[in-house]
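Render HAD family hydrolase in 3D.
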Amino acid sequence: MAKYRHIVFDVDGTLIDTRDCILYSLQEMLMTVKGERYEIEDLKFVLANTSVKNMHLLGVEEEKIPGAVEMWVANEEKNIDMIRIFDGIEELLEKLEKKGSTLGVVTSRTREELELVLDQLPIRKYFSICICADDTKEHKPSAQPLLKYMELSGARKEETVYIGDSASDMACALNAGVDCVHAVWGEPETEADATYRAGKPEQLEEIFL
């Protein structure tokens, strides 16, 4: 029997390449809301956080945050054609499903933000449980999102593994007592402590299949 029955994925930078869509949509929103033009390079820090946390970090006034997030999401919807599934992901998910693995998602996106991107893609059908920012009080790197997944799925720590591209993803897993894979096929933000490291989705087959 396989060691990991539950294989849980981050979304952005792991399953799908959303970097350009997120950052250019944010840049456009900030021009409108703050009247400032940020360089794309200076906005990359937002990729590992929730949208509301990012608004605080960017100095958006509290009363403007709901409208700013709504505008950011609307811009992403307009720029949806910038998003692509990483090469090898669809094939990997199909093989894991056929093997009998239970696949899930833990993301810093809200439910609305997740549905905006994932529900438009053919890989949505593979995931039985998706934990979003709305589902927990604390977010990555806290263990809460993964613990919530395990609560809903009935998964045990020793049979669960989490795959993500950021240091906060890895910290979330380690804080939950769960093994993790640092996915570096996108553009990872930094080095991170992890159980495994994979440079392309195909390398996950060596771990899980």
